[in-house]
Design goal:
The protein is mainly α. It is 60% helix and 6% strand. The protein contains ten helices and two strands, in the order H-H-H-E-H-E-H-H-H-H-H-H. A two-stranded antiparallel ribbon has the order 1-2. The chain is elongated. The relative contact order is 0.09.
Length: 220
């Protein structure tokens, strides 16, 4: 089984870096985040990705290229997070390379879903998540998830984060998203949210205002 490092954190007693993302995790997350928003094929090759990440990590692209090559070819592509989209004709280089072309990449559906959980994407997470929800084939689930995303985006991101973490060791099963999968993974979380909503709706207007003020106080 291929194990991705996207959610890996450092361990070790007494380490100041304990709980922080490993270097491999940071690199893989940045690759996924980059491909989630970059649309131009010329900037989705291995070298282009290396240049983009080198700027992020304040290093030379040559220093990070081999690690990115390994992340793509040995981890992210075999794990079905990234796939080759096509080939670009190189402007120079060996004849064999000119014949085969330079590969460029895109995220799979699972890769897009993982991207929607990455803080590296900032506000773009919401548009990525909406794209993922739009691909759901079951009408009721798709419309319900889009409505939830519209009225409670933070809650939706948290629930999808739980879903992605559940399938992080079985990427192939992550998509397509179905009602049965969502129910199996998120039933407990959704029941607790539903209990809160139903209880809130049964409160008097004054009690609802009091509870809202209380929740605001805790969230600041």
């Amino acid at each position: 089984m291929i194990r991705i490092a996207v959610f890996d954190t450092l361990r070790g007693k007494g380490s100041k870096k304990k709980g922080m993302l490993s270097n491999e995790a940071k690199r893989q997350r940045e690759i996924i985040a980059y491909l989630a928003v970059e649309q131009d094929p010329e900037f989705r090759t291995r070298i282009a990705i290396a240049h983009a990440l080198a700027a992020k990590f304040n290093t030379r692209w040559q220093n990070i290229y081999s690690s990115i090559f390994r992340d793509l070819d040995e981890i992210l592509i075999p794990a079905n997070i990234i796939r080759e989209k096509g080939r670009l004709p190189p402007k120079r280089g060996p004849r064999a390379l000119q014949h085969e072309g330079v590969p460029y990449y895109e995220l799979t559906q699972a890769g897009m879903l993982i991207a929607s959980c990455l803080d590296e994407l900032g506000e773009a997470k919401m548009s990525i998540l909406k794209q993922c929800m739009d691909t759901i084939e079951q009408d009721m689930l798709r419309e319900g998830m889009l409505l939830l995303l519209d009225v409670a985006p933070s809650l939706t991101l948290r629930l999808i984060g739980e879903y992605v973490m559940h399938y992080s060791l079985d990427i192939d099963a992550m998509t397509p998203i179905t009602a049965d999968k969502v129910r199996d993974v998120l039933a407990d979380s959704i029941r607790s949210e539903l209990e809160f909503i139903e209880t809130f709706m049964s409160l008097s207007k004054d009690k609802r205002s009091e509870l809202i003020n209380f929740m605001h106080m805790l969230s600041q």
